[in-house]
Write a structure and sequence with these properties.
It contains 9 helices and 8 strands. The protein is α/β, with parallel strands linked by helices.
Length: about 220
């Protein structure tokens, strides 16, 4: 068995689901368009620049919906999928996942976007194992706005992958091939641990690194 890991945003999807969820919140009339967009765009720029404090962003991005009822939250997730994600999913990305599944690879999506946004997306790709940013819940099961455990962000992606594999009785060294598909230099720590790193729809910074190191470069989207 080989191991195949996928980043999500701008890798399997031609968009950033975290940022798009913020825009979706605005369109739903749940947040002030000017103030919320300005803050959301600022956090996204910090992510692109490699300066994001993830805990601050999680408190912000969960603030709009975490007081909703469970049913309201589910309806919000479904509307986001219907209006934003399903129309954006492209067959070549689905086919890439299916190719690795057909090869018998152990597959996971490893993303710095939180589990509330990404669990339905992973389900749409038929990927059961999702390593996303976990959210702390109180005794009533309500999201508090804090991060649960190690966030799957930068070096934390390695930790989360190792924890997940340990739960399955595996280590990274058990696999002859470890593939990791990502678009972002934020994922360099995990890309460097893979023996089949694939710069997928890469940012200019990641493409430069990939070319220098002889990594595969894959363009799924035009």
């Amino acid at each position: 068995m080989n191991l195949c890991l996928f980043d999500l945003d701008h890798t399997l999807l031609p968009l950033d689901s975290d940022h798009e969820f913020g825009e979706f919140i605005i369109r739903q009339g749940l947040a002030d368009a000017v103030q919320y967009r300005q803050t959301n765009d600022g956090f996204y720029q910090q992510y692109c620049d490699g300066t994001l404090v993830l805990a601050d962003y999680i408190r912000f991005t969960t603030s709009v919906w975490r007081e909703m009822s469970h049913t309201e939250q589910q309806n919000l997730q479904q509307a986001f999928m219907d209006q934003v994600i399903y129309p954006a999913m492209q067959p070549q990305a689905v086919e890439l996942v299916e190719r690795h599944r057909a090869q018998g690879d152990l597959i996971a999506i490893v993303t710095a976007t939180n589990e509330f946004v990404t669990r339905p997306i992973a389900d749409a790709f038929d990927v059961a194992d999702l390593l996303a940013v976990r959210l702390v819940r109180d005794q009533q099961g309500r999201v508090t706005g804090e991060i649960d455990g190690v966030p799957s962000f930068r070096e934390g992606k390695i930790t989360r992958v190792e924890q997940w594999l340990a739960e399955k009785g595996h280590r990274l060294s058990d696999f002859e091939r470890v593939s990791f598909y990502s678009d972002s230099p934020n994922d360099l720590p995990l890309l460097e641990r893979a023996n089949d790193p694939v710069a997928t729809n890469p940012s200019p910074a990641l493409e430069t690194v990939a070319r220098e190191r002889g990594w595969r470069v894959l363009r799924l989207f035009a």
